[in-house]
Batch of 3 targets.
Target 1
Amino acid sequence: MKTAAGAFLGGAASRLLPASIPFRFFGAAVAYHLLAWLALLAGADRVPRFSGGLGWPLAALHLVTLGVLVMTAIGASLQLLPVATRQPVRSTRWPAAIWWLYTPGVAGVVLGMGLGAPWLLGAGAAAVVLALLGFAALLALNLGAARGMAAVVAHGWAALASLLVVLATALALALVYLGAPVLDRGTALALHVAFAAYGFMGLLAFGLSYILVPMFALAPTPDERRSIASGGLAVAALSLAALAAFGVAPVALRVTAIAIGNLAVALHLWLMRGALRSGMRRELGRSFTLVRIGWGALLASLALALALVLDAPVGGLATLFGLTLIGGWLLTFVLGILQRILPFLASMHAARGSRRAPTPSALSAPRPLAIHFGCHLAALAGLGLAVAIDSVRLAALAAGIGALGAAAFGVFFAVLLRRMRGAAPAAPSAREPAV
């Protein structure tokens, strides 16, 4: 049986973007990762019982969601999907333009939130929406012409539809802060959270996992019908959650949506477990420890969501849910995958025009990643405890530890770039014809 690695790598070099395109998105995500922990440190006094509203905790949340998660999703999708769907890269100008619009847009959004400046928030939100609409158009063009990998394509279309809901509700929430509401805040917020975390990012993470996890484990691609079934269950759960957000049998439909969501996750994780067990590479290191912790946090987030729906008498439950969903699952999962994607892509780019490609491990720096691993997990545990016992000091300490870990991850990224550039073959001179 052909492995996912073989299917993915076949002809991949001809469909690579210039290194400057995906790595600028990943670099911005690394920078925003550090800024997110610093923003959380600045707003530590509101973290344990945070329930929304402008301020640095909200800015920190969006530095993670927009600055790290979505930034990484754009960079990974622009590079990996053309390779996986066997499509040529149509343009490098559009991805570059999206970065130039999106990156300052995120800065405007988070500064507007942190400083309590609705006009800046509105301007940043407009730039972010325009950039993401451009990304959505590129994604749709790629998916529409895709050949093969039906499960990945199906998840991509569902993620794209979720993104449109996220953009609409983001604008609705921004208009609330600007004093011109077009949708009830509670409805808009419920749709925004569900379709951003479980919809756009969740479905995209599931779809790309059917490429990346078997590729890194050197395993066969998971069964396509079951992969599509998992995505279908997730879409059904999101549809029920949307109806509940508009007031249709809210408790019953939300409980049903969570139950169906659990089935979708269980099927996906069963497929991932099968890929890891059947793979020729069993030792995947700390990066996949983070991935597994992220999967566990995904299940925990659904349990906490059920507790919220049933109005369980637990202090700080909403904050704990958000921490588990965004920090425990998505951020931890993305950081684990990034540790694998970045050296892999760097190796492919360094190999272009070279007879002997450097290995991903030769381009990586394990010590900063070890520091990040310990700091990241300690920071999440500290934040969880701070929420449980309502401790501002512990929240500040956890944010500081998280910032240290993010700085270490930044060192890993800087070392990777330096080694990639050092390993890449020199461009031929004007007197020497290219071979």
Note: Residues 317-351 form the longest helix (35 residues).
Target 2
Amino acid sequence: MAVGIFDSGLGGLTVLDAVARRLPDTPLVYFGDNANAPYGVRTADDIYDLTTRGVQALFDQGCDLVILACNTASAAALRRMQEGWVPPGKRVLGVFVPLIEALTERKWGDNSPPRPVAVQTVALFATPATVSSRAFQRELAFRAIGVDVEAQPCAGVVDAIEMGDMILADALVRSHVESLMRRMPKPQAAILGCTHYPLVEEVFREALGEGVAVYSQPDLVAEALADYLARHPDKLGTGDQSIFLTTGDPKSVSNKATQFLRRRIEFQAAN
């Protein structure tokens, strides 16, 4: 009874790893659209088309529930998918909700009016497409008031991580943090708004300095998924084994994925 996890590339493996630890008996079907990564510089229509294609492949594998482990897809495509594309009996969820639940200390089912929260200044680090969508700010506004969000488009970080150039990724992270902190010198919290960023989370923490609460997605998403499945067991699909699919070269993607997770991952070509 499999759950699908979609990402534009390899970043979603950070979510898959956390979900596998939290729900070890649940088969997971991962779809990485590596041939078209990164999404962060694409148009909203392009992101929507690519995301629906990948999610449909996961539905075809027997998944009734798919997690968009890609902030860019969650920001640019999720609402449009939920409003007019997702078939009856299927569900597609994004990765913003668990972050905002943690930041505001409110459950998403709490539909009371937005109210002041403890955190007043937030630094958001994300891809250019996620930043330009303002999806995080829009969703946050449904639950909290008085929060100042300063967003930094982190161009190049995903590309460097996907290429395995962690020296370049490190340098880019430090540059982007410095750029944001010139505009917001003392954020109370920092949101790592891309599932690739946990791979360089320690660099973000070091660059931000002490006193900044850093919110990273994998464990938050895994816990939220466990809670969701406990309440909606009918959304466990018919798939019965874990599979890794890619639109890229399976051998190359498998080798990179193995480096990221430090355990052997074997991808196969998506049909």
Note: The chain has a mean pLDDT of 92.
Target 3
Amino acid sequence: MTEIVRHLPHPADFAAPPGPADLHRWAEADRVARPARLGRLRARLASEGVDAYFGIRPEHMRYLTGFILEDGEDRVAGNSGRFLISGDGVVVLADSRYRLQAVAQAPEARIEAATYDLAAIWPALVGSMGAKRVAVEAGFVSHQLWGELHDAAPEIELVPVSGWVEADRAVKEPAEIERIEAACAVADRALASILRRIKAGVTESEMALALEWEMRTCGAEALAFGVACLTGPDAALPHGSPSEREVCRGQVLLFDFGAMVAGYRSDMTRTLFVGEPTPRDLAIYETVAAAQSGCIELLAAAARGERAVPNGREADAAARQVIEAAGHGEHFGHGTGHGIGLATHEMPSLSHVASEEPLPSPTVFSVEPGIYLDKETGVRIEDLVLFDAGAGKLERLTRFPSEVVVVGV
């Protein structure tokens, strides 16, 4: 039987927000780590017989060069932030709006003036790096841009690649883990701060806004993604958006949210109960909690060296089989987890289509099984965990209680 928490968590139960010294230390850690990050990519280039890597993803740009575009800024930045890395050079494109920022944030890179016509400068750009074969992030370059680059320099071979930098980023450095943990603490405190405001009659939108305010004013530089606050039948929408639906006693209230701290993100889901849980909802909650525990116990055994490190499919199955045994297999449609860091969703994946390679280590990912009954109710419990087989560690970074929490009484 799942324990019911009667004494609500308090914001002071969780770690304080990071201060200026923490932010400076993390920035310095990135600066020191960057040559090794570039070295690993250059080793991959050499092994694949490729001369340069062309990237457009903002998180890759930040990880490899230090240049930062804020969330959503890449949609209006044109070609600014796109980059080329060769065996001995780094080029970052920046137009007049971003030039000074790029110079300051990517001092080891050559900053080249960006135009809205990338194809026009492409031959000179790759030529300046002596590149004949260029790896391109094929999953993020449009068919149109690919054709324009090919036509501009047909003698340059464009090599489609996927997952090179993503795989490197899946293995987390200590300072990256610290930032994810700090983002988790911001989210933990934020939820604890609004618990006593939850009562019958408030709306999903009101509670989502309250949670966002607490995160933004208590340590988050931004949200990791838009806050989901869903009550009653709306909780059956795994990625639903808050509406003007009012919270009612006897229903669940599901929050899915995350904070961003120094570029790194958290992601957590808590399903609370407004008033005493109904037998149906409590039974579903206990099944989801058991499914999450099954996955985490598998991972913990691997961290202790009691079994081989599982792959993402095996970790997913450990949770899914509990839900299927309870007769809810068809009500759990998404994967059990995903990696997190500079992006909310990144490698590794815990799902039935995940890689069959053992999970990387050290890494951070979510464990988030759920059960959703259409137009009735939904329950999901999501925690971020640090998996570090080398250190024999499996640690929950999300500290907010995962037991049954009753609010609005």
Note: The mean pLDDT is 96.
